[in-house]
Amino acid sequence: MFTKPIHIKLFFLAVLIAALLLPLFISDAYMFQVVIMSILFAIATCAMNLIIGFTGQASLAHGAFFGIGAYGVAILTKAGVSFWLALPAAAVMAVLIGLPVGLISLRTRGHYFAIVTLCFGVIMWIVAGNWIELTGGENGIFGIAPPGDILVPLIGRIDFSSQAAQYYLALAFLLLTLWALYRIVYSVFGLTFMAVRNNEALADAVGINTFTTKLISFEAANFIAALAGGLYAIVIGAVSPSAAGYGLTFNFLIYLILGGIATLSGSVIGAFAIPILMESLQFLQDYQLLIFGALLVVVIIYFPMGFVGGLRRLNQIIADRRRRKKSEAVHVSG
Amino acid sequence: MKHLILPMRMAVIGIFAWAALSTNALAKDVVIGFTGPLSGPGAGYGRDVLNGIKMAADDINKGGGITVKGKKYTVKVEGLDDRIDPTIAVNNARRLSSRSKARVIFNPVFNTIAPLMQINQQKTSQFLLMAYSSTPKIEQIPNDLTVSIPPPFTAYVNAFCDMAWKKGWRKGAMMVTLGAYGDEWREAFKHHWEEIGGEILADKPANYYTETDFSAQLSAVIATHPEFLLIGGPSEPTGLVIEQAHNLGFNGGFVLVDQAKMDYIADVVFKGDLSKMGNVIGVAPIVGLPSPVIPEWNKRYEKEYGVHDTFEALLNYSATMIVVHAMEKAGTIDNPQAIKAAFAKVLPQDPTKVPTPFIGTLGPKLLITTTAGEIIDGKYTKVNQYVWWTKDEAAYMELLKSIPASDNVVTSWLPLKGYLQ
Amino acid sequence: MELFLQQVFNGIMFGSTYAIVALGLTLVMGILNIPNFAHGHLYMLGGYVTYFFFATLGLGFWLSLLASMIILGMVGVVMERVVFRPLTGQPPINDFIAAIGSLVFLEAFALAVWGPQGLRITNPYPETFQFLGITMTVQRVLVIVAAAALIVGLHFFMKKTVLGATIEAVAQNREGAMLTGINVNRVSAITFAISTATAALAASFLSPIFMLSPSMGAILGMKAFIIVILGGLGSIPGAILGGYILGLIEALGGGYVSAAYKNVFAFGALILILSIKPTGLFGKKEA
Amino acid sequence: MFLAKSLTKLFDGLAAVQDVSFEIKQGEILAIIGPNGAGKSTLFNMMTGTFKPTSGLVFMDGHNITGLKPYRIVTKGMARTFQTTSLFDQLRVIDNLMIGYKWRTGLGFWNTLLHTPKWKAYQTEAFLRAMEILEFLGLTDKSEFFIPALSQEEQKRLAIGIAMMGKPRMLLLDEPTGGLIQEETDRITRLIQRIRDQGTTVCIIEHKMQMIMGLADRIVVLNYGKKIAEGSPEEIKSNQAVIEAYLGGEVHA
Fold this sequence. Notes:
The complex is a heterotetramer of chains A (334), B (421), C (287) and D (253). Chain B is 41% helix and 19% strand. Chain B has 421 residues and is α/β, with parallel strands linked by helices. Chain B has two domains: 24-152 and 295-367, Response regulator (Rossmann fold); 168-278, Rossmann fold (3-Layer(aba) Sandwich), CATH 3.40.50. Chain B is globular and about 65 Å long. Chain C has eleven helices and two strands, in the order ααααββααααααα. The termini of chain C are far apart. Chain C has a single domain (2-276), classed as Orthogonal Bundle (ABC transporter involved in vitamin B12 uptake, BtuC), CATH 1.10.3470. In chain C, a hairpin with a 2-residue loop joins strand 1 and strand 2. Chain C is an all-alpha fold and 287 residues long. Chain C has helices spanning 2-31, 39-56, 61-84, 92-114, 138-160, 162-172, 174-179, 184-206, 217-231, 236-257, 262-276, and strands at residues 128-131, 134-137. Helices cover 73% and strands 3% of the residues of chain C. Chain D has a domain at 1-69 and 200-253: 3-Layer(aba) Sandwich (Rossmann fold). Chain D has helices spanning 40-47, 70-74, 93-99, 109-114, 117-137, 152-165, 182-197, 209-215, 233-237, 240-245; strands at residues 2-11, 14-24, 29-33, 55-60, 63-64, 78-80, 170-174, 201-205, 218-223, 226-231. In chain D, strands 6-7-8-3-9-10 form a six-stranded mixed beta sheet, sandwiched between helices. Chain D has a four-stranded antiparallel beta sheet with strand order 2-1-4-5. Chains A and B meet through helix 1, helix 2, helix 12 and helix 14 of A and helix 1, helix 3, helix 4 and helix 7 of B.
């Protein structure tokens, strides 16, 4: 009932192999960096997709939870905790902090929910900039060491200060995220998220506890966002309030919408395409943001469902037409 | 799900097309990189820094460029905007070092300096990081390829305290900008001021970057009846604070943190009317600096860039000069270690050629005197110049010879803990 | 006591600005259902346009103010037509993205035209006077008076004019209004124009006191959003009350407790109020 | 099986429903009728937990379910549809149905993430139930369609199907044939009869008198928020108060 045709599976396999082999073709530290960061942003955007895209609750505190992951890993590793412990711990921390936030903000709906979560996000951002003892204030926490070398059978020693190792680490988490989201989204349980987004009253009437559903989605998104943030901390090596800011939330939102909301591949495509677009607009210098702002408006007008959504819509129109023709043919013969 | 093939394919094509667009610097150029805020808050500051670097490159190129191992090179400056976002800053630095082969990169904000110090020693993309930030935190991170340009702000703290004390001020109140820099400043100032016997009556920081009306905090600090206010952040809002304090009936003096420049405020905010500023202690006005080339430099700078000159532009101008001359002396344009090692050979700089000459190096720090100035009754007074790194009088007297002097400048020794050699 | 009064005065002045800016936003958000996150940036643009007429062309303060309101009104019409009207029928989150695109554009535009350095127009009324032991400047009093005048004016406009009644009708029932022959598109354009013109008005009054910079609209825009939600979406009295509440919270919190956490008070108050009343102070029951 | 005891709902002090009591018996079709604004929907919403009654009690199988949230009431064996056809219009027909079965299963977060054996069993169970309902509705060939591609009538059927998914013992239908033409109405009527024949009790709100008279076993009539009559279709037809409330002729319209 939720299985994909074989050629799609083969295509994803090909993409996976390409992704695994990519480091062989990138010799350039710059492109490597952009790709690694895009993977991290893709993870966070996928998480945002869960709560905004699939569950329909515009959580604008997402950047703050990314920040909790980043600060969590930074603080714990600085205190001597191994990265491999610090990362899940930071993510659990995000879930714990997310609980009161969710309990309060999920009482509101629509624009109200967006603004309440934005407020929570801004508050956490301000706290990050001012709780000097814990977060280092505006300077943040710097000199965060990458995870220690680990010994892997067959491959040998992995040194995480190299870009290739960071790439595979990030890729592994992206695949893990996509795997988890795939399982959730293409299931009856995932349908309840979409049911809440689509028609909350009806979902309620058919026995779905909408509040709990939203809370689970919110918390799962926070958990994953924090994982992405934790990875960010070791890739960048320094964490300052901008890693927890609302600017980050807006970036994720742009990736999400332009890539294609409520589609798994859309988040990934958005998180790759937009930063790469921004990088390639660097030559415009002072006019970079001018052009980007205008582009954003034009794209949202002409591709309201984003890139993947647009293609999907096209596909659907064609399929519907074909189906209609077929049923007409049946009527004629019958 | 066929529809997914197209986007994926296009994304892959996109990545490779973009990769193919790599632009290598021309063979005869030596690229100096810059990443910093050129838009958003801090844009003015970032542009001042970049302008200084650009002007140095122009001056070098006008003189025929540099000669390294017999080959002639033109200095090319590539400046990228990072909006103080660490992600973009790292991308920019990678881009500058991988694509443009820049081996020297300037950055003016600690939040982006720290992540750059994480990557500048990686074998695949080494570069010399020219960090323009006065926080001592830079020296806490071990890094052989970082140079910090400005004097530590604590040198200013000591200098300003010294001047304020001599004026007879005892009771102060603080309303400094929020943020890392402001936090460090007010803490250091409070500590030092109380150490020498002064008193701080109130401490109400304000956000100079996002707020523009300071009356709430100002009323609170003024209500404690201080003799002077320690204020400052970026220059323009600092000017506003002075004006608003006067409007609220404050008649005391002001001490400005080193980010705020009194001449800039006087010229830009008060349109040159010094009398509107009251009594002010702060970083010396540029016109008061001892170097003979200052007036000419000033004029050229303002003509070229259409903005008031600042210390940021001056010090980065001088630092860029050090870098390119060190390249000549080291005989390499792409070995950052060798370039840094050659700094010693081009220092001290000649005050008749460079407006703000550096004297030497101390660990990762370039050494330059701190200069403090004052406005009394609508006029600039003489400039105080402080040597802060010599550990004894004798070393100071020895150093005096290489320090620029003029009739308008009083030089003295103000040892700064942690930096004495 | 004097200190307290001074803070209250400052709070009222802040609040006046917030009220005007939020008023414009609540019109657009409540009536057109457009979460115009770029509202703060329109305010910023209004300030720069006033600067252009006042400082660059040398017009007087009041003329510049008028010119700025007219130009921003036109900007509002254009923005509604070009950016938001094509998005009709799309999910609100798309309006939000378009608004982010617009604000990025506006900020980059101001940066390109006027540069990053702060600009300010000379204060036309810099005189200070003492009242109840607190110091005031005429310009600041003017801000408060202008805000009050605008609020009263807008109230009469909405209640006593045909156009105002039409706008209200559209706000209450868009489809219904369309059926009675109201040209909804025209009403949308006019509402947007009023919204942006009031932002320009606020910016004009404040530009002698505050520095203009391309990024100044961001935090104000966010606060306006918060006030609109605080007061209840589309509620004019809510926006006004919310504006003054926020101004006072900030002034008192910033003056007495901690400036660093000043915005935490403001945003925290919103969370508190919404956790008690999920649709804001004057919100309709089910939004 | 179901009992409403002096239900009252006040909106801003005005009574939308006042002191209404009635009973629904196992296996019958009970219709609630009344002119527009009589309080039918408000009554319905109180029965299903959407509104909390200002006063009065609701019982299901002798259990007090007053004030329970709608999603809890469903688990007591009562399902409902909405007046304006309410579907998950962004999803496919089959998805719409499967959502309706979720509460009966243990398809939670962890089961789904880990694909436990339980998950597999439940997922199959839900799918089979959906296929069963599709066949019952006569929509088997449209299971992959998105909602907008369905006809008005098909949508109405699907809405009933979603409510049926969770195997309710009592079904509450809010104007199931609103906006349909006679032919379609007849088909829906037959569907409702088949539902009842399967043993499900039905409570229905309807405007169409003719249809109700033929379908219902008993009728409750509301006017101005009060119950003015209760009885078999024949009794209602001849009830003076009802005729007056409908201004005479309309009952037969």
